[in-house]
Amino acid sequence: MKVSVVKSASSSKSKNLILFSAISEGKKSKNLVLSSKIKSILDLATTDMEEETFKSTIGSSSLYRHTQVDNFQNVLLLGLGEKKNITAESFRLAGGHLYKMLSQLNYKNAVLDLSQLNAICSKNIFSIQAFVEGLGFTSYKLCEHKTKGKSEFDLKLEIATTKGAKANKEVKTALSIVDSVNFAKRLGDLPGNKMNPVILAKEVQKATKGTKIKTTVWDKARIKKENFGGLYGVSLGSGVEPRFIIMEYKGAAASKKPVFLVGKGLTFDSGGISLKPSPSMDEMKYDMCGGTNVIGAMLAIEKLKLKANVTALIPSSENMSGEFATRPGDILTLRNKKTVEVLNTDAEGRLILADALSYAAEKKPAVILDMATLTGAMLMALGNIHAGIFSNDDQLVKKIQNAARSTEEKVWHMPLTEEHSSDIKGTFADLLNIGKTRGAGSATAAAFLKEFVSDIPWAHFDIAGTAWNAGDRKSYCPPKGATGSMIRTLVEFVSTF
Ligand code: BES
Ligand code: ZN
Ligand code: ZN
Q1: In 3D, which of 47, 36, 192 has the Cα closest to residue 115?
Q2: Which of the four pLDDT bands, split at 50, 70 and 90, describes residue 31?
Q3: How much is the mean pLDDT over the chain?
Q4: What is the distance in A from the centroid of ligand 2 to the CA of 360?
Q5: What is the DSSP letter of 276?
Q6: Which atom of ligand 1 is nearest to the CA of 271?
Q7: Looking at ligand 1, which residue's alpha carbon is closest to its atom 17?
Q8: Which residue among 350, 375, 437, 442 has the greatest number of ligand 1 atoms within 8 angstroms of its CB, and so is best to mutate?
Q9: What's the rounded Cα separation, in Å, for the pair 54 and 51?
Q10: Higher pLDDT, 441 or 30
Q11: Ligand 1: which residues within 6 Å by Cβ?
């Protein structure tokens, strides 16, 4: 996909014109917010172009073929919904919708005319960045393992505006985010035999070569030597070695304390000896999305040259049930010397994260954020709408909520209390890897993680519900497939930290 900025739509060679439209408050088709250009199209319209078919709701569009408007053959009106409700997300959704329309119509080029945009919405709400994000996210499709039917569609979009410098900057920012999010989505979508810890580490090394990110990878021997008993113990049932991936970005003075991002990189979770049931087990290829989203965020942070110091840690393993696998009841000693009874080998995410969190806490960062597809209970509680956040610091929660408000990704602050901590106190070791009582499974998992962050301000994102399978909620997210959930929020958090 290529996006360029031009001064006026009339200079474009494309035959396809795109215009935004909206609805004025509360009223129906009669009160469409019409720029003079749209009015002229509707005046020329024959029966199939009647206002009735042109609703302007978000996600709606109307195609007018064989028009003579400014010599454009085809004009596509793209609805933004009610004027008073338009936000940046409306443009992101419109971008997703437009990309789908253009690829269905096989219109490989088009020009978006913004010259009359102020008739449609207020200046400070309009976001080229969000619009290009929506287009770019939707352009992603994993077809590298299809022998036929690979997508040939490569869109060239021109954006016509007199505010060239600002538009160019927004397009550039958007494309940096798009590349990073789509990179992360591909890692998540690839299945276990195509994306394991060893391949993941190589992909990160390749992607960060020649950038300002320094990548270091620990192999199995180093992981053992560093006393990462959780990551090592979880990996024992698999024939594929684990990896610990460290990505360091220094964009600010050395005196500025770093932000640490930690992501669960479980490339396939069979449950181990506590084997998961067969239905939908294939979806456990997505159990690495916390890790891949942290990787995506790092790539974006570097591309955007953010003035921050950020380190990402991705413990990566498979969870399998081979002959050397950790058994239920086994006791593991983790990086910070705490011991844990593994009562359920399927609660493995917290074990591999624990070592990474301890390592992060040792570096005394300003803050630690971790992200993981940690519990099925999170999916039950919040569905695929919100990511749950758990924290030991209310100020930090506010900062995350502010970041999420501006990216319009949804987070929900979940409780984390003494009761959850006492639920994971061990019988034969310090801790249990599952709660003693039923219920609050996401909170007991978070309470487990809390044992490893010392007194560093920390927040945990449980993205089990939002990491893949966004349903049909968002035009720019595939109904099935990795979503890149919370990458934009992490980047926003770091940029304002
Ligand atoms: N990767 C899963 C969590 C998960 C389940 C994410 C379903 C998305 C959808 C995690 O490793 C796991 O299996 N957790 C267990 C914990 C339980 C054994 C306490 C769970 O949620 O069932
Ligand atoms: Zn599991
Ligand atoms: Zn898991």
Answers
A1: 36
A2: low
A3: 94
A4: 23
A5: P
A6: 13
A7: 347
A8: 375
A9: 5
A10: 441
A11: 269, 287, 344, 346-349, 373-377, 379, 434, 441, 464
Residue 324 CB contacts under 8 Å (≥ 6 apart), including other chains: 236, 237
Rounded to an integer, what distance in angstroms lies between the CA atom of residue 116 and that of residue 293?
Answer: 37
Ligand nearest the Cα of residue 445 is: 1
Q: What is the pTM of this model?
A: 0.96
Tokens of 489: 């929020």
Cβ atoms of 367 and 260 closer than 8 Å: yes
Distance 422 CA to ligand 2 centre (A): 22
Sheet holding 339-341, edge to edge: 331-333, 339-341, 431-432
pLDDT digits over 77-99, tens only?
999 988 889 999 999 999 999 99
Residue 148 or 38, more confident: 148
Contact 351, 334 (CB under 8 A): yes
What integer pLDDT is reported at residue 268 of this predicted model? 98
pLDDT number for residue 65: 85
For residue 452, how far is its CA from the centre of ligand 3 (angstroms)? 18
Query: Which tens digit of pLDDT belongs to each residue from 15-24?
Result: 999 999 888 7
pLDDT at 26: 53
Task: Give the number of the ligand closest to the Cα of residue 315.
Answer: 3
Identify the CA nearest to 265 among candidates 217, 327, 322, 213: 217
Residue 369, token pair as written in the block: 């954020």
Please give the distance, rounded to the nearest whole angstrom, from the Cα atom of residue 349 to the centre of ligand 1.
8
Structure tokens at 478: 């595939």
Q: Does position 48 have pLDDT exceeding 70, yes or no?
A: no
Measured CA angle at 178 (ends 265, 75), to 5 deg: 145
State the DSSP H helix or E strand holding residue 487, giving kind and residue range, or none if neither: helix 487-496
The closest residue, in CA terms, to atom 7 on ligand 1 is 376
Q: Are 423 and 436 in contact (CB under 8 A)?
A: yes
Query: pLDDT tens digits, residue range 453-486?
Result: 999 999 999 999 999 988 889 999 988 899 999 9
Lookup: tokens for 279: 């239905």
| Weakest mean pLDDT among 12-26, 74-88, 260-274 | 12-26
Question: How many angstroms is it from 458 CA to the middle of ligand 1?
Answer: 22
Q: Which residues are catalytic?
A: 276, 350
Report how far residue 258's alpha carbon sits from residue 248's, in angstroms, rounded to the nearest whole number: 10
Ligand 1 pocket, mutate which of 343, 346, 480 (most atoms under 8 A from CB): 346
> At residue 27, does pLDDT exceed 60?
no
Q: Where is 214: in which H helix or E strand?
A: strand 213-218
Question: Minimum-distance ligand to the CA of 464?
Answer: 1
Instruction: Please give the pLDDT value at position 49.
Output: 45
Question: Which ligand neighbours the alpha carbon of 264 most closely?
Answer: 3
Atom of ligand 1 nearest to the CA of 374: 3
Distance from residue 344's CA to the centre of ligand 2 (Å): 9
Q: Which atom of ligand 1 is nearest to the CA of 377?
A: 21
The mean pLDDT of 285-289, rounded to a whole number, is 98
